[in-house]
Amino acid sequence: MCFLSVEGSSRWSNLYLAYKTLGVVFGGLVTSPLYVYPSMNLKSPTENDYLGIYSIMFWTLTLIGVVKYAYIALKADDHGEGGTFALYSLLCRHVNIGILSSKRNDSNPGISHSCQYEGPQKPSRLARFFEGSVVARRVLLFIAMLGMCMLIGDGILTPAISVLSAMDGLRAPFPSVSKSLVEGLSAIVLIVLFLLQKYGTSRVSFLFSPIMGTWTLTTPMVGIYGIIQHYPSIFKALSPHYIIHFFLRNGKEGWLLLGGTVLCITGSEAMFADLGHFNQRSIQMAFLFTIYPSLVLTYAGQTAYLIKHPNDHDDGFYKFVPTTVYWPMFIIATLAAIVASQSLISATFSVIKQSVVLDYFPRVKVVHTSPNKEGEVYSPEVNYILMVLCVAVILIFGDGKDIGNAFGVVVSLVMLITTILLTLVMVMIWRKPLLLVGLYFVVFFTMEGAYVSAVFTKIPEGGWIPFAISFILALIMFGWFYGRQRKIEYEMTHKIDLETLSMLLSDPGIQRVPGMCFFYSNIQDGLTPILGHYIKNMRSMHKITVFTTLRYLLVPKVAPNERIVIKKLGLKGVYGCLIQYGYADSLNLEGDDLVSQVTDSLQALIENHSGLLPSVPLSIEEELLELETAKLTGIVHIRGKARFYIGKNSTLFDKAMLAFYEVLHNNCRSALPALGIPLPQRIEVGMLYEA
User: Fold this and answer.
1) K+ potassium transporter C-terminal domain spans which residues (predicted)?
2) At a CB cut-off of 8 Å and minimum separation 6, what does 502 contact?
3) Given CA atoms 683, 687, 690, 691 in this order, what sign does their dihedral have?
4) What number of other Cβ atoms are within 10 A of residue 445's Cβ?
5) CB 45 within 8 A of CB 303
6) At what angle do helices 205-230 and 2-24 cross, to 10 degrees?
7) Distance (Å, rounded) from C-alpha 414 to C-alpha 269?
8) Buried-most residue among 37, 58, 185, 216 (CB within 10 A)?
9) N-terminal to C-terminal alpha carbon distance within the chain
10) Whole-Å CA distances, 581 to 101, 119, 587
11) pLDDT in the model for residue 664
């Protein structure tokens, strides 16, 4: 009975989670009927053309949505997290191919190394190739970054095309409403939506699932009405031979139409990317039993209507809605478009937060808007940039076809990148038979490659927008990461050992001032070179000094008992602190919570008398008193600001990338020394400090 009770509880829990996914995960996918047909450049379409298009959409939803994402991709989670970077981190944890993990090792045997290879099997031939090729590892990292950037591009285009397509429903009952007015109203809705982001999604999230649930239920009902009323035999198009005849009949024009049909699967990546917020079972249940049937029936009803009214494809959604339910459907569509926009905006904030935590992206302000939900974040800078770009896309391009072309680039490239990374996971981690992996790769790479080739022809017609944005973001991320790694290399080369620190402190002119100081560094074996410059310039050092190293693990979250590791360094009042975090952990270095955790760990270390060396003749009571006094006096945080000076033999790539990093990290003026251009009255030190 107990077993049945637990099983029943789990089933109801999954059903509740499946209900919640409607408003968070599937907003973009389930609202795609608003803009798929209007995005197609159809010219005098016939009945067979529409049957072929519906057959393509059905098999795209079935193969990519059901087979690839619902059954395969959801199994490739990284400790419950999904998305393109989760696939990359999964590869890094099992095979030594991660540039990031190779730089952030910890020699402490007491710490769990989640990012290292844990399997008993020897690496496959493909894994050995990546381990031995720096170029291949960098290309793989760039592909993973590009996938993340494409999701950010999705966060720009989904609000624009969803809200614009929904508001366009005003023009049918009111022909006097101009296109410019619809664009203006759409821009106003988006501006209000972005201005509300600072309050967080918690306060209105309870509305999301009911809205999307209503949309998911009503659109297939309208679709069934359209099937019965206009073309009851529409489901004969499920036969793949209609696809073959479509391409044989239309040739190049049929291939180009793939740039519009690909939008029927837009938002499917969210099934995988939002895995960390729910679980595999709940997402599968929601997609297979609600979203997939809803889309199949809705597109069938739209196509049935268009077969009888072939020239109404420019407004393929609202035209097939019966007049009696037009306004209720307009209201539901507008609300659903806003919810779909919200889900992608929130996902963009999460992706940016993960990128910042991983040191892949320049520091931007990240605010946690919910005390209960750690993943609910908001970034003011990113929010306003997204707002400007979304409004610009609407006002500049306006036409749904142009935005659809841009959207198609994002959708198809993200799918293709996921296919490539999933193939590597199958070969290097799952060790699936090569025949099975080859079948998967050939089917999906061919299908998605055809979509990519079709949307690339649309680059001059608006498709360049997300591609340019994503490429620039990926370049920024790669440049930032490259500069951070060079900074680590500099610190490792010029690090200070305890003997040197002891000599510096033996100078009579150096005073130990009251208070506590946190020195942040990227190295774990030795002390940051900033310390030498700091002591020589300030002529002092705090009585309690904690050298803090941040260690990123390629896992979503680090266990609380492994988060903070404290040890004594053998000098009076000098301690080493290792703070570990995963890419789903929140980290506020100067927050009271983290500081109190570190000081509590220090107190526990002193009380346990662990690590106390004979050279430090202090009693436990005296050390605790000094720690308490330092906390009351004040706490100072010191980080290093790297400035690189490159020799004459450095490559042009080194100079360019480090100059680019300096622009991102400091300012344009500080990039000049990296290029070899001298600055007047420049302080000749390799690292500067800032308090």
Assistant:
1) 514-689
2) 571
3) negative
4) 15
5) no
6) 80
7) 7
8) 37
9) 62
10) 13, 23, 8
11) 56
What pLDDT was estimated at residue 168?
Answer: 82
d(CA 323, CA 633) in angstroms, rounded, equals 73
Segment 156-180, tens digit of pLDDT: 887 888 888 888 888 777 777 788 8
Q: How is residue 373 written in tokens? A: 């939900």
Q: How many Cβ atoms sit within 10 Å of the Cβ of residue 246?
A: 22
What confidence tens digit (pLDDT) does each residue in 595-624 have?
A: 788 888 888 888 776 444 444 445 777 888
Contact 74, 280 (CB under 8 A): yes
Reading the block at residue 272, the tokens are 């995988």
Encode pLDDT of 480-514 as tens digits: 877 777 777 777 787 888 888 888 888 888 888 88
State how far the Cα of 255 lies from the Cα of 249, in Å rounded to an integer: 11
Strand partners, 378: 367
Residue appearing with tokens 């999705």? 154
User: What are the tens digits of pLDDT across the range 135-144?
Assistant: 888 888 888 8
Annotate 396-444 with DSSP letters as a single string: HH-SHHHHHHHHHHHHHHHHHHHHHHHHHHIIIII---HHHHHHHHHHH
Identity at 643, one-letter amino acid code: R
Structural contact between residues 431 and 62, judged by C-beta atoms closer than 8 angstroms: no
Give the pLDDT band of residue 399 (cuts 50, 70, 90). low
CA dist 627 and 638 (Å) reads 19
Spatial distance between the Cα atoms of 595 and 597, rounded to a whole number of angstroms? 5
Can you name the residues that pair with 496 across neighbouring β-strands?
527
Q: Is the pLDDT of residue 661 over 90?
A: no
Contacts of 203 (CB under 8 A, 6+ apart): none
Report which of residues 593 and 21 the model is more confident about.
21
- Average pLDDT of span 562-570: 84
**In which element (H, E) is residue 512 found?**
strand 511-521
Domains along the sequence of the chain with CATH: 34-101+125-479 (1.20.1740.10), 495-690 (no CATH)
Which one, of 438, 227, 194, 182, lies nearest residue 322 by Cα?
Answer: 227
Average of pLDDT values for 583-589?
Answer: 64
Residue 190, phi-psi category: left (phi > 0), alpha (psi -120 to 50), beta (remainder): alpha
Task: From 422, 459, 530, select the one nearest 82 (Cα to Cα).
Answer: 422
**Residue 660: per-residue pLDDT:** 54
Map tokens 């249940």 to a residue.
285
The answer to whether 545 and 574 are in contact (CB under 8 A) is yes
Q: Per-residue pLDDT for 674 more than 80?
A: no
- Residue 32: DSSP 8-state: G
Residue 245, classified by CB atoms within 10 Å of its CB into exposed (0-12), middle (13-18) or buried (19+), is middle
Mean residue pLDDT of the chain comes to 78
- Alpha carbon distance 181, 170 (integer Å): 10
Can you say whether the dihedral through the CA atoms of 106, 552, 77, 419 is positive or negative? negative
Query: Above 90 in pLDDT, residue 69?
Result: yes
Q: Please give the structure tokens belonging to residue 221.
A: 């009902």
Question: 586 CB contacts (<8 Å, ≥6 apart)?
Answer: 368, 374
**Which amino acid would we find at residue 354?**
Q
User: Is residue 530 within 8 Å of 687, Cβ to Cβ?
Assistant: yes
**91 is written with which tokens?**
């590869």
